[in-house]
Specification:
The protein is built from eleven helices and ten strands. With about 260 residues, it is of the alpha/beta class. The longest helix has 20 residues. The model has no long low-confidence stretch (mean pLDDT about 90). It holds the Pfam family EAL.
Length: about 260
């Protein structure tokens, strides 16, 4: 049984002591298997040990609003990392960051904060992708579009995360300002039935005609990876290739 009150009591001290660390999960280009980008994830580490799964504490932080502070902390750490390594990264390499829906309650504050981080760390914004979930877009369309239009001035990419996770996906597509669509694992399933193949092929066809990049996450089997490769998926993310890893391991992997 998880003591949620104990977790909440420890959050601010944990932030002060920098117990939240950035982890990276690489994404690969299907045709070559080369790492082309990575998603930044958060892990709560104390004395070298991971405390709780993010699946436990992130929903709590969404409820009490602490996720806002945590996001900005993670963004700062990521921008700092990019400042250090951007000159040695492969060309067009992307680092993607998740955005809590709470930021869209005050979108201008979010925009101003990202602009401030860009000025502070002087990073190349073309290395950045922000992932915004489909549900966030559906529930905050105007605010999300405000952020997208602002970020496009800096050539920051925007990805629609968790596409196909249960919302009106086809209706969402017609007004899409996003650069990239990231298909939810539930959309793929564990095995590909004939109907699933047909649906995916049609979705891929639509997205390609709209000029959107396609990323599929949660890929764990070679069967699904081969199908995605044949259908022209731009990037694949999942345990079949790489699990989330600490900074040191990620640096060894991409900077060798």
């Amino acid at each position: 049984m998880v003591d949620t009150n104990s977790i909440i009591r420890q959050t601010h001290p944990a932030l002060e002591h920098q117990e939240f660390e950035i982890y990276f999960q690489p994404k690969v280009t299907p045709c070559t298997g080369a790492i082309s980008s990575a998603e930044v994830l958060v892990r709560w580490i104390r004395n070298g040990q991971m405390l709780w799964s993010p699946a436990i504490y992130i929903p709590l932080f969404e409820q009490n609003g602490f996720v806002i502070s945590l996001d900005y902390y993670i963004y700062g750490k990521t921008f700092q990392w990019l400042q250090k390594y951007s000159d040695t990264l492969p060309e067009h390499f992307q680092i993607s960051l998740n955005v809590s829906p709470l930021h869209f309650e005050q979108p201008q504050i979010f925009i101003d904060k990202i602009q401030e981080l860009l000025r502070t760390y002087q990073v190349d914004p073309t290395h950045l992708t922000f992932e915004i979930t489909e549900s966030t877009y559906v529930n905050n369309t105007d605010a999300v579009n405000q952020v997208i239009r602002s970020f496009k001035q800096y050539n920051i990419r925007i990805s629609m995360d968790d596409f196909g996770s249960g919302y009106s996906s086809l209706n969402t597509l017609k007004d899409l300002l996003f650069d990239e669509v990231k298909l939810d694992r539930k959309f793929l399933g564990d095995t590909l039935t004939e109907n699933a193949r047909i649906v995916l092929q049609e979705v891929f066809h639509m997205l390609k005609r709209m000029g959107k990049s396609i990323v599929c996450e949660g890929v764990e089997t070679q069967e699904i990876a081969d199908f995605l490769k044949n259908e022209g998926c731009n990037e694949i993310q999942g345990f079949l290739y790489y699990r989330p890893m600490c900074q040191e391991d990620f640096e060894k992997l991409i900077l060798k």
